[in-house]
Design brief:
Distance between the termini: 66 Å
Number of helices: 3
Strand content: 35-45%
Largest sheet: 11 strands, antiparallel
Helix content: 10-25%
Number of strands: 11
Radius of gyration: 19 Å
Shape: globular
């Protein structure tokens, strides 16, 4: 019996070693939406006058490379925001926020975000604020962003730990919408 258990263990080890990291499963699921656009709604943290409430919210999975996925996030006519996901050699994902003016120049406050500290879950990735973010926006030192992705929705979330700040927008990925024009700073 001991011999059989040892053999089973030895034969199952290569299968365990070949398991795909959760971050790669998440990444590949996100890439399946490349070229598609979806409309979203604020599910938490919206309030009158915040610049988001009452506006049409659209995400467009515009560009998918092996290690970079760009998703413009349009708020009404404002095309200044793009979420930039980057996969590193250790299968960890970074989220950065690329903000541009209409002329394509960067905002003064841009390229903030964070790196996942582990491979996360196949349907959830978490990004605590990085050093660059803390230097750029000291109040955002306790920011944590997380993105969820399942068969019906993509959610983008922000929580500032130690405060009441919480924002969440959910996109229905079962209903593709017309692809918008390019975000500011990009060409068609």
């Amino acid at each position: 019996m001991k011999k059989i258990l040892c053999m089973l263990l030895l034969f199952s080890m290569p299968l365990i070693a070949q398991e795909v990291p959760n971050s790669v499963v998440f990444w590949n699921s996100l890439k399946e939406h490349c070229g598609k656009s979806y409309q979203g709604t604020i599910v938490a943290g919206g309030k009158e006058g915040d610049g988001f409430t009452g506006e049409k919210l659209v995400m467009h999975v515009r560009s998918c490379e092996d290690d970079i996925i760009r998703i413009p996030f349009f708020v009404g006519d404002d095309k200044s925001r793009t979420w930039v996901f980057t996969m590193d050699k250790d299968n960890l994902i970074q989220l950065k926020h690329d903000h541009r003016h209409k002329d394509g120049s960067e905002y003064e406050v841009t390229q903030y975000g964070g790196m996942s500290s582990n491979v996360g879950l196949f349907n959830l990735q978490v990004f605590p604020a990085d050093k660059q973010t803390t230097n750029l926006i000291p109040a955002a030192a306790t920011n944590v962003w997380w993105v969820t992705l399942d068969a019906t929705s993509f959610t983008y979330n922000l929580r500032r730990i130690g405060s009441d700040r919480y924002f969440s927008v959910k996109f229905d990925i079962t209903k593709e919408i017309e692809t918008p024009t390019a975000p500011w700073g990009s060409e068609e």
